[in-house]
């Protein structure tokens, strides 16, 4: 039995993120004591994210990149359904609280070149599994942004400032909803922060984050992880 290009044995070696993990940003914790009574890492305790909670299926490492990067850059759209199944398992508790699923958007020129939004495919997959509505076009990037991978946390935050808005006419769909924001990877949180602020401005009751993979400990000690 296989899942996409992976056999079931391969998935036994995956670094899944399970408890203990930070409830706020989804980063894995070495032990429950590090989370304290609020189940929260040191960075989130000092600088709480603008969203409510975050979950990730896997640690972002060599293993998870073998699923995510081909989806993102090489047209392996079948990987979206595979990732969505594992994301839904990781976010079981959140899926009981949310009422609408929304993906992180691509800028229109990048969408035209890629022909699909990988976050949108995963969001639709999660929404189907959870029997929730999905608004794939609720958010839009109003200007192109640089690739964030090689930018520092501060540069990412600056690059994403006012880059994302709720699409005109979609604010009525967002208002009052408990939104689950879906993306492929959570690193410094700059994109998730920009999306969350746009959703809250449009009247969302809450925003939670769900990603396929989460970068590890380096961000746990990074005070620039969240909007200050």
TrEMBL record:
Gene3D superfamilies, sorted: 3.40.50.2020
Pfam families to which the protein is assigned, alphabetical: Pribosyltran
Residue ranges of domain Phosphoribosyltransferase in the record: 157-214
Family, similarity comment: Belongs to the ComF/GntX family.
Name of protein: ComF family protein
């Amino acid at each position: 039995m296989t899942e996409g290009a992976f056999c079931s044995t391969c998935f036994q070696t995956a670094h899944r993120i399970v408890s203990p993990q930070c409830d706020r940003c989804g980063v894995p914790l070495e032990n429950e004591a590090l989370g304290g009574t609020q189940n929260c890492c040191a960075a989130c305790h000092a600088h709480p994210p603008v969203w409510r909670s975050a979950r990730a299926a896997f640690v972002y490492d060599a293993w998870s990149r073998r699923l995510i990067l081909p989806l993102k850059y090489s047209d392996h759209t079948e990987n979206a359904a595979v990732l969505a199944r594992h994301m839904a398992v990781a976010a079981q508790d959140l899926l009981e609280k949310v009422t609408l699923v929304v993906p992180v958007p691509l800028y229109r020129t990048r969408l035209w070149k890629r022909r699909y939004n990988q976050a949108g495919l995963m969001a639709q997959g999660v929404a189907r599994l959870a029997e929730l509505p999905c608004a794939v076009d609720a958010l839009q990037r109003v200007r192109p942004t640089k690739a964030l991978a090689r930018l520092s946390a501060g540069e990412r935050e600056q690059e994403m400032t006012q880059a994302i808005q709720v699409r005109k006419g979609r604010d009525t769909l967002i208002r009052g909803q408990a939104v689950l924001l879906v993306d492929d990877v959570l690193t410094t949180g700059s994109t998730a922060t920009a999306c969350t602020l746009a959703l809250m401005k449009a009247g969302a009751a809450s925003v939670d984050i769900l990603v396929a993979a989460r970068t590890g400990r380096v961000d746990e000690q990074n005070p620039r992880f969240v909007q200050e």
